[in-house]
């Protein structure tokens, strides 16, 4: 028995063996809540008090909820970023509508040049008119 500086009993934290923790974790995987008789049986089989089992389960549920909430937040972030990516892709498709339309042979060269610059790296991969003095092929 430990005493504090005033001579009162000091509360000590119980340490559980690996076997006890393993059994508690296995039980927790199957059920997150234990009813009184189940808790009493488990406590007896592990050499623990019912109160220790009860508190262990309370603490474990809290840990589980935090982890579950973090996983849900991560999944939501991933889903949101995917939605944004798809949204951005569809906006680009709308911008590409002009590019995907057949070109009007009577349209001005400036419009065609702008479209080519917008969609080709460097923007000068094609010549619309051969330089003066050269024959077109």
Describe, in plain words, how this protein is organized in 3D:
The chain is mostly helical. It has a domain at 17-73: Homeodomain-like (Arc Repressor Mutant, subunit A), CATH 1.10.10. The chain is 63% helix and 0% strand. It contains four helices and no strands. Helix 2 (36-46) crosses helix 3 (50-100). The longest helix has 51 residues, at 50-100. The protein is rod-shaped. The protein starts with 17 loop residues before the first helix and ends in an 18-residue tail after the last helix. Residues 7-67 form the Homeobox domain. InterPro entries: HD (IPR001356), HD_metazoa (IPR020479), Homeobox_CS (IPR017970), Homeobox_NK-like (IPR050394), Homeodomain-like_sf (IPR009057), HTH_motif (IPR000047).
Helix-strand blueprint:
Layout: H1 18-30, H2 36-46, H3 50-100, H4 109-119
Helix pairs in contact: 2-3
